[in-house]
Request: fold
Amino acid sequence: MTNSPVLVAGAGPGGLSVALTLHQIGVPCVVFESVADVKPLGVGINIQPNAVRELYELGFHSEALDAIGVQTREWVLVGLNGNEVYSELRGLKAGYKWPQYSVHRGKLQMLMYRAALERLGPASIRTGRKVTGYRNQPDGKGVTVLLQSRNGDRSEVEGSLLIAADGLHSAVRHQMYPQQPPIQWGGAIMWRGVTKGKPIRSGASFVGLGTHRHRVVFYPISAPDPLTGLADINWVAEITVDNSGGWPGGDWNKQVRHEDFMHHFESWNYDWIDIPAMLRGAPEVFEYPMIDREPVPTWVDGNVALLGDAAHVMYPTGSNGASQAIMDARVLGAAMVEHGVSGKALRAYDTQLCAEMSQLVLRNRGAGPFGLLNLLADRCGGVFDNIDDVIPKAERDEFMLRYKTAAGFATEKLNAAASTIPTGAKVR
Reply:
């Protein structure tokens, strides 16, 4: 194994998963993060059982994850008139050996960040330094990484490999694909917030209400307060508009006023949930476009590989963006156990995941599991009395199984799968 460390761009969940995995298999690494001070930013996310399994194998067990999130028990779709379209149990309730978690992204990131500082040492994570590019070394045995500090100072560092987990606006991906199409916006606008409220149904249900082009998604991301019974309810309100003119705002995540979007949902008051009250209850609301990027033919250039959103940013319709970043890191680690710290390991990782994830990006663009709401809209406009008269149960179940299989968390397959990285495995 080379003595040069693996260099990692980005200290989000993807980059930290890489760092923790490399430490586990005995590979030194250094993480470069552009922000000066890592803070718990972001919104609510779901971590699927396949990724939770990997977090367990990295040493994050239920006690740590329960402290920052909620074990999801149910996933539900509801039509425009408030009637249920589809529901299924999730996590342990669905027969998985591992739970699914709803959690604030920032809390997950900080849990992993503290663990990385403790296990790898503070010198292994260098903040205030952005990876701006790279040069594969002529002998094929390493990579030179270009850095820029927050005050503009430029420097270079040598490493064995570069793993770019530097997100949607990845400078490394841009160097690999300078002619790549711009970020793709399909016309959906999302408003996101967190409101104190009483969890409904199972107490830990993920609920999607409305149509594919006009919906609200909400789920708790904290346990209820023992005194008030109130939990943090993460919600996303979304409409789809004409995208022919491109994204109208300059900001990718700007704070907005409630009155800027509430009129789209004012009539959504049901006997089991008052959507306008939930939306108004958030102290802050942020607006985001729903975006992805066109898939690329490979994530690897010599001794450099893309990972997480840098490789496959996707619409958040299947709740598997963060989960897949964790899975990427673990598959990469397994490739290094087999092939060493080498370009060969990167190519094995790419072969296993790139084409498959490209299909998932496109599947999510086509609504992902919310595609059931497309069927519903086509057949009855989203309003119905008996869902079996519109989409028979067997058709609903088959639709969802196809999605879960494509996303890598079909129950029986996951439960029977061997560990991605065998216990105690080290790179030799």
